[in-house]
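Journal club prep, notes for RB
We'll compare a predicted complex against what the paper describes. Inputs for the adenosine monophosphate case:
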Amino acid sequence: MNDFPYKKIMMVGPQGSGKTTQAKILAEKLGYKYLGTGEMFREIIQKKEPGFEQLVELFEKGQLVDDQTTCELVKSTLNKPEYQDGVVIDGYPRTVAQKNIFDPGFDIILYIKVADEIAIQRLSSRGRADDTPEAIEKRLDIYHHETGPLLDIFLNEGKLWVVDGEQSVEAVTKQIFKRLGINF
Ligand code: AMP
């Protein structure tokens, strides 16, 4: 796969779009590292790492972690040797400011599109601790206001590819693989 042109792939979509599931399937298929910023922060909280105590409250409210902290963590992770052969990034950048602070230079952005109603239905049934109705609503609101403008920028850069996320996991995976020219 030496001539495969997609080394840095971004997966984006509202919470409940299935982007994490798809990002992990794709990373495994390509033998790439998976970097999910939501997962990264949940691990930091679980390990009770010093200096990150304020994350718990942000998470419970469904608010974003500050750009500086987020960008530094992502940048240092992506600099590690094991991330150099290829990576699927799930959840970063989430704001235009984050892209301006640190842009990993994606080869393609896969936008998993689903309507809010579908996202809410799916989130309400997955039972994660930070999936309270208030947090879900807050995260979707942030997604539209903060991540929406970012998608417009990627669209203008000609790097955005829209995937219909309102289908089965397998059907969504098939769309993605087809777009990237990999066998299902
Ligand atoms: P997720 O699992 O992607 O829904 O992310 C869960 C939570 O992690 C979000 O509600 C944010 O608090 C935090 N988070 C994840 N990615 C970012 C990011 N790029 N910028 C700021 N906060 C983030």
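Talking point for the session: Residues 133-156 form the longest helix (24 residues).
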